[in-house]
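Lab channel / #folding
Pinned by the channel admin:
"Please post every new chain as: sequence first, then the structure tokens as a reply. Keep commentary short and put observations after the output so the thread stays searchable."

First post following the new format, from NK:
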Amino acid sequence: MTRGRRVWGALLCLVLVLGCSPPGPKDIRYGEELCDYCHMIITDPAFAAQLVTRTGKVHVFDDVGDLAAFTTEGRVPADEVHGMWVNLFLHPSERVPVADAVFLLSDRFRSPMSSGLAAFRSGEMADSLRSEIGGEVLRWSGVLSRARGSRRGVDAQ
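Reply from TO:
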């Protein structure tokens, strides 16, 4: 085998390996990218979230509440969702799947779209902050229930 064929073979293998990686969240370009729900520029990493489809399309959000609304409105069918991630409020450069996060709902949070939702890695962290500022600790199912309730209120008007 010639050297040229080996190089092309190695490049082809690299492309195949990279192309076969599972879809996942990406690095958001803060100050540049628009939220896929409200179309505002995403500026605050502490409240950012992402939804990734099975095909690898990434939807980005400036507020956990926007991700919840986008999800409950069925803008991407549930069977096409690969996963959803939220940035941690205390460590915004870290992302966790929504199922692993604990959320604190508090009117003391100045989230971009005023949802008042912040994500934490553990219930202990969320409880500790709740004891200081007030609010309600939720799992993702509770966040979705609140989003569905808000949506019904909008539909009724």
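NK: Strands lie at 49-53, 58-61, 81-87, 95-97, 102-105, 117-120, 136-138.
TO: also worth noting, The mean pLDDT is 88.
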